[in-house]
Structure formats: C-alpha cells, structure tokens
Amino acid sequence: MHVRHAAAPHQLAQLISACEQAAIWAQSGLLLGRWLSDSVSGCF
Predict the structure, then answer these.
(1) What distance in Å separates the CA atoms of residue 3 and residue 14, rounded to the nearest whole number?
(2) What pTM, to 2 d.p., does this model score?
C-alpha cells in the first residue's frame, strides 16, 4: 500500500476512524474470548 505525501484530510480521517474501529473490535474480541473461556472452564 503506497502512501502519498499529499493525502486528503477526509482520506486521513477515514483511515484513522478505520483504525479506531479495528482497535475497538479487537478489544471486544479479546473481552468476548476471555468471557467465553471463563464460561467454558466453569462448565467443566
């Protein structure tokens, strides 16, 4: 992925929001995985 030095502000904002959403999804996935593992380990 080539990054142009003259990136448009709206493109930069979209990139930042995409990164933020990815981070939020990653955190949610980690929390969900931890909750699932706790629930499963509690069953056995």
Answers:
(1) 14
(2) 0.55
The C-alpha atoms of residue 28 and residue 13 are separated, in whole angstroms, by: 22
3-state secondary structure the chain: CCCCCCCCHHHHHHHHHHHHHHHHHHHHHHHHHHHHHHHHHHHC
| Average pLDDT of the residues of the chain | 86
The per-residue b/e assignment along 3-32, b for 16 or more CB within 10 angstroms, e otherwise, is: eeeeeeeeeeeeeeeeeeeeeeeeeeeeee
